Automatic annotation (TrEMBL):
Entries under InterPro entries matching the protein: CorA_cytoplasmic_dom, CorA_TM1_TM2, MgTranspt_CorA/ZnTranspt_ZntB
Keywords (A to Z) from UniProt: Cell inner membrane, Cell membrane, Ion transport, Magnesium, Membrane, Transmembrane, Transmembrane helix, Transport, Zinc
Topology versus the membrane: Multi-pass membrane protein
Gene Ontology terms, MF aspect: cobalt ion binding; cobalt ion transmembrane transporter activity; magnesium ion binding; magnesium ion transmembrane transporter activity
Protein name: Magnesium transport protein CorA
């Protein structure tokens, strides 16, 4: 049985799910379970060694940075499990918690350990789906970056922004899975007497899935870094094209500048001043001095792709 604040006081709930509880809800949950309901600051400020611990018959578990939606900020999650009740404390909406609570309709929980295993399985399954979504977005982004059509710096900058957004999303997945992995390892190592063998087998499968997701995370992270490096490389290549055009332009303008400088000198005797066609001849010579370097660069293929 799942109990949430506002449902009335039950006789013996298996799972108590608290979402940003007020003082009255904390008091009610403490009365039902006989356990102290921690504040948010208690979960966030726990030392690394105290985030997962046992106290008498209860196991206190926490995930300091938990986010199971692509756009949500990480928020702490506290879990307390005993032989008769599972109590969770969270401060953000969570599709994984909703999915686990919905499974109660199809599968009646036998114990608090059963409910805990169901919750962890839901978290890991949704995390796997989010990683698959990130991988699919990376495939589309890769197709945009690696194309035969030349793309400019603004488009590449947008690709880099997308890489950064996906990396942030993957980092949230990674922080959540790290907390879950520590919880699963701790619970399996302690294995209290009230935990059935069936639950232990399910947690073993989850631990294997987490190792697989960890390897998949490495692949996704490497792909993100590769796309970032590729985008920077293409931007550098694009800038080299620009510099090449500027270099060709500057070289092509050197001969006409020299000719114009010669014919612009104020000497008293310059034969060209007395020529009838001196002016059009000078213009034609300047134009030819521009065209010849450009045609030479074109013949050598240095303008190719621009």
């Amino acid at each position: 049985m799942l109990w949430k604040p506002g449902m009335g006081k039950p006789q013996a709930p298996i799972w108590i799910d608290l979402i940003e509880p007020d003082d009255e809800e904390r008091r009610c949950a403490a009365e039902i379970t006989g356990l102290r309901v921690p504040e948010r600051g208690d979960i966030e400020s726990l030392a690394m060694s105290s985030r997962i611990r046992t106290d008498d018959d209860a196991m206190y578990l926490s995930i300091p940075y938990f986010a199971d939606t692509g756009n949500s900020d990480a928020a702490p999650v506290g879990i307390v499990v005993t032989n008769h009740v599972l109590m969770t404390l969270r401060f953000e909406a969570s599709p994984a918690f909703d999915l686990a609570s919905e499974s109660c309709d199809a599968h009646r929980w036998d114990s608090s350990a059963d409910a805990l295993a169901t919750l962890i399985e839901a978290i890991v399954n949704l995390a796997a789906k989010r990683m698959e979504d990130v991988s699919a977005k990376l495939k589309k982004l890769s197709d945009r970056v690696f194309t035969r059509t030349r793309i400019g710096t603004p488009a590449l900058r947008n690709c880099m922004l997308e890489v950064g957004r996906l990396e942030g999303e993957q980092a949230r997945n990674r922080s959540s899975m790290l907390g879950v992995q520590r919880i699963v390892s701790f619970v399996r190592a302690k294995k209290p007497e009230w935990m059935s063998d069936d639950v232990e087998v399910r947690l073993r499968v989850v631990e294997h899935d987490l190792r697989t997701l960890d390897e998949f995370d490495d692949q996704v992270t490497n792909k993100l870094q590769f796309l970032l490096d590729a985008s920077l490389g293409f931007i550098s290549t694009d800038q080299n094209h620009v510099m090449k055009v500027l270099t060709v332009t500057s070289v092509a303008t050197i001969p006409p500048v020299i000719l114009a400088g010669i014919w612009g000198m104020n000497f008293k005797r310059m034969p060209e001043l007395d020529w009838s066609f001196g002016y059009p001849m000078a213009i034609a010579a300047i134009l030819v001095s521009i065209l010849l370097p450009v045609l030479f660069f074109k013949w050598r293929g240095w303008l190719e792709g621009d």
